[in-house]
Amino acid sequence: xxxxxVGNKIRLxxxxxxxxxxxxxxEQDNLDFIGSFDRAGHQAFMHTTNxxxxxxIDLSNEDFVGFMLLDDVLSxxxxxxxxxxxxxxxxxGFGRExxxxxxxxxxxxxxxxxxxxxxxxxNPKAISLYESEGFVxxxxxxxxxLDTKGFRSQRFYSMLESEYKPII
Length: 168
Known about the structure:
Elements: E1 4-6, E2 10-14, H1 20-29, H2 39-46, E3 51-58, E4 64-71, E5 79-87, H3 94-109, E6 114-120, H4 124-132, E7 136-147, E8 150-160
């Protein structure tokens, strides 16, 4: 299946191998807020039938601007994980549009019943974006992740198909 989800500013498309160095660089730049894979991990994710590895392409110049990972897209429970999301160019609306395109794709094409994500408690910009896009806070795992910052808590958010409101 070839995927191309087009908005006003960006297109989400299946990640190609040529984007992997850019993706891994974005991950390294954002390690305070996301997990990361090595090249083999990204390639495995790209070739797993239950996952989607998507690149964000700027429609104005065809440049790579970010990526997202969706997991459990074939879940019999129709419960899709919005696993990872990074935009390299900020303050241009790419992130908000990417989330809207993701919701549209998951609910309208993949027939998701719910779309869920986790975010570190100390990432207020991401939390604000997810909440403004209609994701509902479900709870928190306190101090469940240990890294160089110490123990960190994660918040869990979801959106049900009945809460989804198409904007794009």
